[in-house]
Design goal:
mainly beta; 164 residues; 10 strands; single chain
């Protein structure tokens, strides 16, 4: 099984996160969800190179201050017992410094959302888990999220310990 490598960043300003409402692509695993800014690694990119490129491509902003907060392992179980699941390792960041002008994104609508109001949005269940960890100001964490093929969060493991 080949693993996908991605980054995700929550850009912060004035108690708000810059969120992307994924509404512009028809075939999108994140369709109608609200997520941070990020995407897939390109060939030979480091996590930081991917982060900076994805933020620039999706928002028009250039990050000037960011922090690597954790690694999130996603596993989506296969639909059929003999099928192959999907494995993804996501480098999770927050950023509090940037320059440039926010521009329209071709993947969805960008909006500054109050950090407390983010939980009222249509989020993946696992995103709620790592957003809480970001709020707790943990130095660094490793989070594993196992989903069923229909998007149900089945298992959560934080720093090697199963939650719930």
């Amino acid at each position: 099984m080949k693993a996908e490598l991605t980054t995700l960043c929550y850009i912060e300003q004035d108690g708000k996160y810059l969120m992307l409402h994924r509404v512009k692509k028809d075939k999108d695993i994140n369709k109608d969800k609200w997520i941070g800014i990020g995407g897939h690694f390109e060939e030979r990119e480091s996590p930081e190179e991917c982060l900076l490129r994805e933020v620039r491509e999706e928002t028009g902003l250039t990050l000037t201050s960011w922090r690597f907060r954790g690694i999130v392992t996603f596993y989506c179980e296969p639909e059929e017992p003999e099928g192959e699941g999907v494995l993804e390792y996501m480098c999770l960041y927050t950023a509090d410094g940037f320059k440039g002008e926010l521009r329209e994104c071709d993947e969805g609508t960008l909006e500054w959302v109050d950090r407390k109001a983010v939980y009222e949005l249509e989020l993946w269940p696992g995103d709620r888990v790592f957003l809480k960890l970001l709020e707790e100001e943990r130095q660094f964490f490793s989070l594993k999220l196992v989903y069923t093929c229909d998007g149900e969060l089945k298992e959560t493991v934080l720093d090697g310990e199963r939650l719930g």
